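re: ur question from the group chat, yeah i did fold both. here u go
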Amino acid sequence: MRTRPPSGPGPAWKVPPRSIVAAVIGGLLLGYGARAASGCNIGAYFSGIASGSLHGWIWLPAAFAGNILGTRLRPWFGLGVERTPSSC
């Protein structure tokens, strides 16, 4: 019985350095945005809808548009779509 993967002492990470930098910068921007907005954006969405506020309903199309924009900007920053082989 093996206790280690065959490639060495630990699992091999195959994450490009550019993706790591993008993830760190994105995380910092998300944290800054949550702090500047005085709370979590998901909390604003759910609380806004639960209280019947308009800002909760505006959040959904704005977040959707932001996701589309972010996805389309990835190649501009040299980040491609990372695909992993399917196990199916």
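okk and heres the other one u asked abt
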Amino acid sequence: MAFDAETRLGADLGGGAREGPSLPREKLLSVTEVAQWLDVSRAWVYEHSNGRRRPYLPSVKLGRSVRFRPEDVEAFILECERFGSIKAA
């Protein structure tokens, strides 16, 4: 029996598919894309995403790659607006 997406999402073995959880298909952003969006260097993004600098920029670690959810970047911008401007520590 092959292990496919239907099996992972909970399809029954009788052939009828159940409605499984809908996974978001939103594109994760790269370090370069976030740096361009915020108009900062890639190094700045890395430093703020790994906790070395404040404010902390939430990220998703995928092996050696770091990716960002667009809604996390937007929340980060709003949080920085509350306290003045984005400042590198």
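fwiw on the second one: The mean pLDDT is 79. The longest helix spans residues 70-82. idk if thats what u expected
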